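Hey, can you fold this?
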Amino acid sequence: MEKWDTVAIVGVGLIGGSIGLALRERGLARQVVGIGRRTASLRVARQIGAVSRTTLDLGRGVARAELVIVCTPVGQIAADVRAAANACRIGALLTDVGSTKAEIVAALEGELPRQTRFVGSHPLAGGEKSGPAAATADLLVGRTVIVTPSAATHDDGIADVAALWSSLGANVVRMPPVEHDRILAGTSHLPHLTASALAAATPEHDLPLVASGWLDTTRVAAGDPELWRQIFATNRAHLLTALGRYEQVLATLRRALERGDEAKLVEVLAEAKRRRDAIANSM
């Protein structure tokens, strides 16, 4: 893919910082502009080399950008995309990294100003740590990025966004926004909800005795609560459906325990192991 002249990243945290590092280390952008709300965070992004320069002014930051990547929390993404589209170069390409897609894509449906093009994206990468200090240039290497065009999305925009993520080492999958949200409710959002529930259900006086299983299972519960509130709120219906399936399995396990039905316990545990092993062996 051709080198970008100017790329603007709105929100230079873990994901935005990692994208900036990857773009610069791979020589894919002459200049990467970091845009944020806190001077201290932007200073860190500059210090680690994720961006060439920084600004608190979104309009000024995107003014010369051919590509704008919005990495703010899902509740802000649509507004930030609109603001960027009003200020960036005519014909610029815009994408995002939001963990939910249907609401964002629907809010941006139709023609954006200045002949700009928006294509939704979601990199399946990250972790419980936040901020540019946690960014790494290889965060997306070998990971999946889901691109979620709508029926109104321009084909050239889809191809350009897919090429962007591929150039950073990611595997690109394309699907409709609603399908993305349905699947991710079970594979990403429910795991965070259940990890948080387990952590919250553990008596505080028992915490000194937690073992590696508890720590592994609750790792993602260390994520930013406000960020995850927004994700849950914007994918509420699909998350409730996924939670219902989970509750059915928990009810089966509870009945088996109450009745001493060890055969049923083994059946559920064996099926869980089969599914976990299958995905682990494919990676």
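Oh, and this one too while you're at it.
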Amino acid sequence: MTVTDPKTTLHQYLQSAREAVVWKLEGLSEYDTRRPLVPSGTNLLGLVKHLGYVELGYFGETFGRPSGIPSPWFDTEAEDNVDMWATSDEAREEIVGRYRKAWVHADATIEALDLIATGRVPWWGPGGEVTLHQILVHVTTETHRHAGHADVVRELIDGRAGFASDDSNMPEHDESWWEAYRDNVEQDARRAGG
């Protein structure tokens, strides 16, 4: 990444996180993209679905630029966490497509406004005034946080880990090295735990 203006830099980091999250779905069955692997129900396709609504809301309604795509966030009858999992009648292509549409809508907002442009986050209640800079940082941080969740979930599914298909950002070792490494970490944890 080259040194650029702050808005471009933030936008580049947001885009890299977006791509990492979508890449985590690559090569998986429908079941594996949807199955919860931790007690909170976190699942890969649910993370993509959630992040699509995050971008539509924060870069849409917040700045008076609604996308026209309905969001469960504004449906008072919606089930809790409905944006965090994909129902059996929601196609993967539909969810990923909506996320990519959210990127286009968000990118248009980012392009159109200065970092000091103000908006209001309605779901934050009174005092939800923000700037584009704050929202870019907020959404980029949230997307990277969920990319980390996706890393762990994907590794639990099939052992595949890393940042991107062409750049794992991890040491290149075989399975036996990683087993020995994990065992070493486990041994130290046990010693530290008494």
